[in-house]
Amino acid sequence: MHLTTLCNTSLDNPTQRNKDQLIQAAVKFLDTDTLCYRVEKPETLVELQKNEWDPIIEWAEKRYGVKIGSSTSIMGPSIPAQTQEVLTSHLASYNMWALQGIEFVVAQLKSMVLTLGLIDLHLTVEQAVLLSRLEEEYQIQKWGNIEWAHDYELQELRARTAAGTLFVHLCSESSTVKHKLLQE
Prior knowledge:
Layout: H1 2-12, H2 19-27, H3 43-64, H4 81-91, H5 96-109, H6 112-119, H7 125-132, H8 134-143, H9 147-172
Subcellular location: Mitochondrion
Main location: mitochondrion
GO cellular component, one term: mitochondrion
């Protein structure tokens, strides 16, 4: 169902956006990336965020040669213009269909950093979804799980993220077939 939706959206382009607009829509999420916003209390959640999110941010900074950072301020971190330029340039290497998929995944995870980790095969779908829901998972551990709500949300988010990631990979893949001439 989600792959069909992505295909139809890419075919129809109902919002009539061009490539630059799709790239900007994805990159704008960097300013409000889930991994960049941290809490100050409780200490156990602060430590969990540090242990789980910092390695992903460090990976992205090293992989793309950028500075992302994090903040406990409601204003969030100050993302350098060069970081946005580098990521914009990187996304420009994808075709329109793949960009539709990237924007879809970014919107699901609320994170450009996690999406890049998925697209680069640094993270699995399960890891990315868990990291995007880190605070919710923390609360579930503390207060308990509402099976009909939390379980459904988790499975739906995994399905949407997996579909978007697969869509990006399928739209970015290229292969050629070389036929050998048979000698008689």
